[in-house]
Design a protein that fits this description.
Blueprint: E1 26-27, H1 39-49, H2 61-75, E2 84-87, H3 90-101, E3 107-112, H4 117-123, E4 128-133, E5 135-137, E6 140-142, H5 145-152, E7 157-163, H6 175-187, E8 191-195, H7 211-214, E9 221-225, E10 239-242, H8 246-258, H9 268-278, H10 280-304, E11 309-310, E12 318-322, H11 330-341, E13 343-344, E14 346-347, E15 358-362, H12 367-382
Parallel strand pairs: 1-13, 3-4, 3-7, 7-8, 8-9
Antiparallel strand pairs: 2-10, 5-6, 9-10, 11-12, 12-15, 14-15
Helix pairs in contact: 1-9, 2-9, 3-4, 3-8, 10-12, 11-12
Amino acid sequence: MKYDFDAPVDRRGTDSLKWDTREGELPMWVADMDFAAPPKVIEALQNKLDSHVFGYHIVPDRFARSVAEWWTRRHRWAVNPEWVIFVTGVVPAVTSIVKRLTNVGDDVVIMTPVYDIFFHSIENTGRHVAESPLLYRDGSYLVDWEGLEAQLARPNATLMILCNPHNPTGHVWSKEELSMIGYLCARHGVKVLSDEIHCDLTLPDVRYNPFGEVTGNADDLVVCVSASKAFNLAGLQGAAVIVPNPTLRRVVERGLNADEVAEPNAFAIAGITAAFDQSADWLDELRVYLAQNRNVVEDFLAKELPQLHSVKQEATYLMWLDVSQVTFDADDLCRHIRATTGLWITAGNQYRGDGKGFVRVNIACPRSTLSDGLERLKKGIETYRR
């Protein structure tokens, strides 16, 4: 490999959300990678630092071009740069869009288990979660089509938030699944907000399907994308919202500006454009390394922890592990593991659905760190008593 993903990076004492832990603890929870950023990104940020001036910044035209060209070139979705809006992050974008495209008291449909911040964006703004649980069958997740349509048909359902690819299950939605979701939403007059932040982190032989490329109803579609997960740039606070319909785009853009989440800091544009324009080879090697890490985990579970099972996944660096043979109280299990081994992983309860029988583990780290985490996981499971 051209890039060294085995090299450890000491992040303690750097004000890291992930690594601001007690001495001896190993955090493998939040979706944040323990790899150095791509060299071209570091170079672009250094050039910006060398300017010595960090005043107010605008969003230059090259930002929209960079985003549009990445999705057109890499993901086969012909995005027009005019559709692209800068935003400081996908989470603030989701909350702002929920507020703009729905009314207080409306129902927002989500398929669970799913990224927990969606619940916050809905419930903290006075809307209601209309939960459609996914079906867990033979180690994979499927859509409950009858249940999903029932939620979309609710009188107050006005928006569906889709996670594509899905977090935490790692499922890459097929074109057929996305087409059916689009059809059902159009049938019931429900707009779609698709969070596609994990789209670049598929297995090396897997491509994700952009909802905007598949659906025949782009007029009611808003898509959130970012370089933050694939290139580990969350701290730069930059993302994009893609809205093909000009009328809907104006509504979304007004909301983002009203919520003051549409202006970049001094480093965001430089880092993001360097990622999309110059760092594709780094990402390709990263995906191979992450796939190897996934194999390491699966081999370890098979040999050392056969009571745990890895859900079949095609995307993300977040492994969704079935612990139902050990407990259906993942919260209690994760507390025990952290208290006895120092390993910090995420209990599936917070993602609702059937999450109480699962844990989420971040494997985006050097192999030595991963091995340490697996040994701690083994100790925690073996000493756990229900």
